[in-house]
Design brief:
With 129 residues, this protein is mainly beta. The chain contains no helices and eleven strands.
Length: 129
């Protein structure tokens, strides 16, 4: 059973930083993708950043490019999202999501909400102005 568990959310002032973690377990195949999504009140869920286990390739939404960094620690089966220069508009519940494949994955590939097979429960990030 695939499990994705987020942690690291909280309250931070604008311009500050937070690091989110996603503990990953249960994938049957070595090739899988992990994405970070967010959903602000009254808005649709949107993809923020993605990483492939196959080759480490990454992809970022334009809204976070240059401010957020996704990375993975394969030994600890954890994916991180380092968020710097945070803005009030980054306030949202952040979700870790993923899917596995039978062939190597290179980002950006299948990055939509509907492409994800597994979801964590989310962690709240609040950025005050």
């Amino acid at each position: 059973e695939v499990q994705l568990v987020e942690s690291g959310g909280g309250l931070v002032q604008a311009g500050g930083s937070l690091r989110l973690s996603c503990a990953v377990s249960g994938f049957s195949f070595p090739d899988y993708a992990i994405g970070w999504f967010r959903q602000a009140p009254g808005k649709e869920r949107e993809g923020v950043s993605y990483i492939s286990s196959s080759d480490g390739s990454t992809y970022y939404a334009d809204s976070v490019k240059g401010r957020f960094t996704i990375s993975s620690d394969n030994a600890k089966n954890t994916v991180f999202l380092q968020m710097d220069s945070l803005k009030p508009e980054d306030t949202a519940v952040y979700y870790c999501a993923g899917y596995e494949a039978v062939a190597p994955i290179t980002m950006p590939t299948m990055t939509g909400v509907d492409d994800m097979d597994y979801w964590g429960k989310g962690t709240l990030v609040t950025v005050s102005s």
